[in-house]
Structures are given as C-alpha cells and as structure tokens.
Amino acid sequence: MAFELDRVILRTVFPEQRLYGFQVANIKDKIKQVATCSQTGKVNEELRFEMMNRYYHLMDQLKKFGYDRKVHPYFTEYLVNTYGIMKDKMAIEPEDLSMNDPQFLRKMITECMYTDKVKDILIILDCLVYLAKKDGSSIFIQ
After folding, report:
1. Residue 54, number of CB atoms within 10 A of its CB
2. Distances (CA, A) of 119 to 3, 65, 123
3. Lowest-confidence segment of 67-71, 91-95, 101-105, 119-123 by average pLDDT
4. ∠133-134-140 over CA atoms, to 5°?
5. Which residues, other chains included, contact 37 with Cβ-Cβ below 8 Å and sequence gap of 6+?
6. N- or C-end of the chain: fewer Cβ atoms within 10 A?
7. Sign of the torsion formed by the C-alpha atoms of 85, 87, 92 and 97
8. Do residues 10 and 73 lie in contact, with contact meaning Cβ atoms separated by under 8 Å?
9. Speriolin C-terminal domain: which residues (predicted)?
10. Distance CA 18, CA 37 (A)
11. Which three-class secondary structure state does DSSP give residue 42?
12. Percent of the chain clearing pLDDT 90 (strictly above)
C-alpha cells in the first residue's frame, strides 16, 4: 500500500514522466529537476508551477484523511524499505479480490501490524482508497 500510494501521488504530479528514482519524500527536488532544462540549466517556471500546484492540491485532498506531507512520505519510504513491495501481481485471482477490499485490508492491518504503526498505515490506506475511487481504478494498479 505504501509503495502504491507513493506511485499514485507521483503519477499525479508527473503524469508523463518516468518515475525511476522518484519518491514523494524527494518530490520538491524532482519537480525542480524535471522543470530544469538539462542543456541550459534554465527553469521552466510555468512547468514548475503546474507540478507544484498539482502536488499542493493533492496534499490538500489527502490532508482530509490525516496525511501529513512532512511525515507520511518518509513513513511510506520506511515501510517499503522495511517490508518490501508486492511483486508479480499479474492478475487478480478470485481469492485475491479481498486485496482490493478496503474493509479486508483494514482488518488485516489492525490484526497483523505493530500497534504503533497502525494509525499511520490506516491513513495510507484511506488515502489510497480515496484516490482509487476518484480515479475509478482498483486500489492496487495491475
């Protein structure tokens, strides 16, 4: 979930950019990098403004679910580095449908995760569910 939320945020801010090496934790640096011409070093202020605007607009939306842009980008990075990501999820099998069920995921989080991390992981889940509904997609992009 942490990795997926990071990717959704990054795809929103950088819709046409390859996201290799991008994390929400370093998003302001990446916005500056993307908006800067590699040949002249000149910053395309209009592009930088568009990306920053998308970022702040999204952060305002996620704030309603408890997302703190000074905490959660680093927390998601910690979760991915500590627990890894789900790999090889080619197609959802019938028994895997629960992986896109927010109630099932909420139950798994509260039952299986360390108590001190549950609150923040539930915030990540709530944000991911909100963005999936907004985009008309599943929680986990295939």
Report:
1. 16
2. 17, 11, 6
3. 91-95
4. 50
5. 43, 44
6. C
7. negative
8. no
9. 1-141
10. 16
11. coil
12. 74
